[in-house]
Specification:
The protein has 376 residues and is of the alpha/beta class. It is 25% helix and 25% strand. It contains eleven helices and 18 strands. It is globular and about 60 Å long. The termini are close together. The model has no long low-confidence stretch (mean pLDDT 95).
């Protein structure tokens, strides 16, 4: 079918809305009519080249929700009309990672940047000129329709607003799980959240819900610091350097048992700063993405050893998508998890560049693209 999508044709150029053609669902695939797509910082890394796809043009978007419009052969868990969230990491349930409880490291994840469908290793999206298109994490939520493997979709209750559900495809599980799973925040612990955009605000809520004693929010944008206090932070600071003295005073020199780093772009030179506010025996969780082509890190190895600190990577917050996405949305429904107030602005697909500029300017916790009948 012919539709449209937001494409990148080279690095450091704006998104362009172009006509694309999406194939019909094959075995174990479903077609989804998109309702909402979250605007995550990771898609901006596509523009800068920080996340290198296998080629151009790239169809962006890896966070979204919609309605099943068609199912392919062999699909048994979904039917037409189901409401679904797109999980940016598939969960096959069969590979060694999935079977060992690490569904966020599903073997299908190795294929996410190559552009070819996991079903049959073919390109399923083409431009009007017939060029193969590389969809972000084999999704491409920056288009009104998509065809995906059933492992990338999670069925949800039909009374969940789509703009809320969309954020559970990446940002909410990634942030919340960075605190509750990867960070394993325990009651009474002191926690620092470095960067309080969409992922950071979810991490902040995860720390609060886990019973953290003090939650220190760190972000250079004053408005975000104000929002962090509304979401439960006990104090907010513009920089790690500014926060360090206050954290030391509040914790009597003990610092934070858990430091969750959810900045939009990780730089190796900052790692030792984050480790500096991590308590001895504590854990610093790196959730924010660095440039895949960079490997330089500043880290005092002696202090890492002598104070027995942990530096923990985290992808998707250690989440099990099929379990955690419905669970997080059930927490939203009963008022335990505030997702709605994280949505700062909604945009049309044609406003995508405005939305990303708002993100870079620190005006959004999370921007969401909302599709309407005009798009379908």
């Amino acid at each position: 079918m012919k539709t449209k999508g937001a494409l990148l044709r080279e690095h450091n150029k704006p998104w362009a809305i172009e006509e694309i053609e999406i194939g019909d669902p094959k075995a174990h695939e479903i077609k989804i009519r998109m309702e909402a797509a979250g605007m995550c910082h990771s898609d901006h890394h596509l523009m800068t080249g920080g996340i290198p796809m296998a080629g151009f043009p790239i169809l962006g978007g890896h966070e979204g929700a919609g309605v099943v419009a068609e199912v392919g052969e062999g699909v048994t868990d979904f039917e037409v009309g189901d409401h679904v969230v797109l999980s940016f990491i598939p969960s096959c349930g069969k590979c060694p990672s999935c079977q060992s409880g690490m569904a966020n490291l599903c073997d299908f994840g190795a294929m996410l940047l190559q552009g070819e469908a996991v079903s049959d290793n073919t390109f399923r999206i083409q431009t009007a000129a017939g060029e193969n298109v590389y969809p972000m994490t084999l999704l491409g939520t920056f288009a009104p329709y998509m065809v995906v493997h059933e492992a990338s979709a999670v069925k949800i209750d039909k009374d969940i607003p789509f703009e809320v559900a969309a954020l559970c495809g990446c940002g909410i599980p990634t942030g919340y799980g960075s605190s509750t799973r990867s960070g394993d925040v325990r009651p009474g612990e002191d926690v620092a959240i470095v960067g309080v955009g969409g992922v950071g605000t979810a991490a902040l809520q995860g720390a609060v819900i886990s019973g953290a004693r003090n939650v220190f929010a760190i972000d250079p944008v004053e408005w975000k610091r104000e929002q962090a206090l509304k979401f439960g932070a006990t104090a907010a600071f513009a920089s790690v350097e500014e926060a360090a003295m206050a954290i030391a005073e509040t914790t009597h020199g003990g610092m934070c048992q858990k430091v969750i780093v959810t900045v939009g772009e990780v730089h190796g030179k900052d790692v030792d700063l984050w480790m500096g506010i991590t308590a001895k025996g504590g854990t610093c969780v790196l959730t924010g993405m660095g440039n895949m082509l960079e490997s330089d890190v500043t880290l005092n190895l002696a202090m890492l050893t002598l104070l027995q600190k942990n530096l923990q990577g985290s992808i998707f917050g250690g989440a099990n998508p099929k379990l955690d996405i419905p669970q997080l949305l059930s927490m939203y429904k009963i008022g335990k998890l505030n997702i709605a107030d994280m949505i700062t602005r909604q945009y049309r697909l044609e406003q995508i560049n405005d939305g990303y500029q708002d993100m870079l300017d620190g005006r959004n916790i999370r921007g969401v693209i909302r599709y309407t009948e005009e798009d379908w």
